[in-house]
Design brief:
With 346 residues, the protein is α/β, with parallel strands linked by helices. The chain is built from 10 helices and 11 strands.
Length: 346
């Protein structure tokens, strides 16, 4: 316990120093350039708490963090440098759009035929339905406490699941955080999850000030959904604090009443946006838990076979690929195996 507390203190100190440096750099950039907008990149730009503090400075009208802000994003920077510097091309007027990456869905996608071939290989039964029917069905399943693997369209560019390779759950379910960690992600039960929220409804649940399509801003949950804490809350143990119901969406509310939010926009991900709307119609809240479609220590799934194997080796209840839905209870018993660690746990 003493060693764990030492690690916590060290992590806190590193975070505070990082925040101080980031804020000083942002202020200096504003002083030198006079620019009212700021772009942030590099691995540190994945620090959603520090990004939120830049926004809270009030020095900038807009903040943009490239979704693959770490080393992987260097390829995008190199391409833009060549486009503007070597070829002398002008920058494009976005005409009010937040960016031109169209949701960062730049990876591979798989056809209905690909899903069908995988299903035949594993003798995996499934149901097929229209997009509208699928969204209604999946919204209902999640509202009933089920965990759903969701694989749609082109894979995300960057480390965040943005509704293309995601595991989804109900943030209002007080047991969902623990269940997802222990039974799906195979990691410590205290680890938090991020919410995906309808962009137009975001101010109802979070103090934002900016869109966050790439899940790179930590924002406070609104006063309207917070729960009153007891007078002795701050003297309680860590686990007691973690599992105290702090808001009406407990699975995505951190101990400090923040959440790492993703705003979902109809223009960039209409299917995921439709699912959130269907869920809102059923439950009253257009917010879902969104965590990456993988288990601890393994990369995010890419292909239909990746998704099916992860689905079968965890306690996910349903898998959705394109407009096909796989019910765990109907899958072949021989494929329901204990999880095999292909990769060393982080």
């Amino acid at each position: 316990d003493r060693l764990d507390m030492g690690h916590c203190n060290l992590a806190l100190a590193i975070q505070k120093v990082t925040e101080d440096i980031v804020i000083k750099m942002a202020r200096e950039a504003r002083r030198i350039t006079g620019a009212s907008n700021i772009c942030v990149a590099g691995g540190v730009a994945l620090n959603c708490v520090a990004n939120g503090m830049i926004l809270d400075l009030g020095a900038f009208d807009n903040i943009f963090i490239q979704p693959a802000a770490g080393d992987a994003g260097g390829a995008l920077g190199a391409a833009f440098a060549a486009y503007h510097i070597y070829f002398g091309k002008e920058r494009v007027d976005l005409k009010g759009k937040p960016d031109n990456m169209q949701g960062a869905f730049l990876g591979p996608e798989y056809t209905d035929k690909d899903v069908q071939i995988m299903a035949r290989r594993y003798n995996a039964p499934y149901d097929s339905m229209s997009t509208e029917g699928l969204c209604l069905m999946v919204a209902k399943l999640i509202s009933q406490g089920n965990v759903v693997g969701w694989m749609q369209g082109r894979m995300e560019f960057g480390p965040r699941a943005l509704g293309a390779r995601s595991i989804l759950g109900d943030p209002a379910n007080p047991e969902m955080q623990k269940r997802l960690n222990l039974k799906i992600k195979y990691r410590e039960s205290f680890r938090p999850f991020a919410p995906s929220v309808l962009a137009e409804d975001c101010p109802k649940y979070f103090r934002t000030g900016s869109a966050s399509p790439y899940m790179l801003l930590a924002r406070e949950v609104s006063e309207d959904i917070r729960m009153e804490i007891p007078a002795d809350f701050h003297t309680r143990g860590v686990k007691e604090k973690l599992y105290f119901k702090r808001s009406t969406l407990p699975a995505i509310t951190h101990v400090d009443y923040t959440a790492r939010i993703q705003t979902v926009h109809n223009e960039t991900n209409p299917k995921f946006w439709s699912l959130l709307n269907a869920f809102k119609d059923l439950t009253g809240h257009g917010v879902l838990i969104n965590t990456s479609f993988n288990v601890r220590g393994e990369p995010i799934v890419c292909t239909p076979e990746d998704a099916y194997r992860c689905f079968m080796r965890t306690e996910m209840d349903y898998l959705v690929m394109n407009n096909y839905i796989f019910d765990k209870s109907k899958q072949p018993e021989r494929e329901k195996t204990d999880r095999v660690d292909t990769f060393e746990l982080d």
